[in-house]
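Field reference: sequence -> structure
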Amino acid sequence: MRELDLFDEDSSATLFRDVIMLALAGFVTLVMLLLPHINPKALAEEAAKSPGNLTVELRWPDDINADVDLWVEAPGDRPVGYSNKGGRVFNLLRDDLGDTADLTGLNYEFTYSRGVPEGEYAVNVHLYRNPAKTYPVPATVVVSLKRPGSKTAKQILVSKLELTHQGEEATVFRFNLDEKASLVSGSVNNLPKKLRNKKT
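Structure field:
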């Protein structure tokens, strides 16, 4: 009789453990399924945040082995490019040399600003080297602005151009921002302005 009672107690304990483990596994599965849906809006906003107030991006075809350089100038500051990667306002985040020492296979350069002082900004593109001898080299430049107090950047300018010879420096944009970091109407132009060898 005692053996039978002992057997019933073991099977009850085993059954209880199995039920508890199944309930726990179900709860963990439910949490795993709900986790990505807890706050997708906050995740989307985090992904859209820009590292600086004013960002300038340069892109050219990945299959062209060319070293195209981005140069930017903020009001009252010296030009920022491959030989001067940081100023008071702008920083060059990526200096792309084409296929040289490039593990990504992508051709792009990127700058960002800390703050947006009032005045004129200039953006140039310079074809430093083109060992592929592929001409013209098409390039796209995008300027995005994140106004103070905003969490996301908004594209304000975009331009496509073609570089036709090594050593060419082209002014893509010159534009003014006012004291509220708004683009001044009628201020956008591409009047030539040398930035690469400018002494300040």
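Note: The chain has a mean pLDDT of 84.
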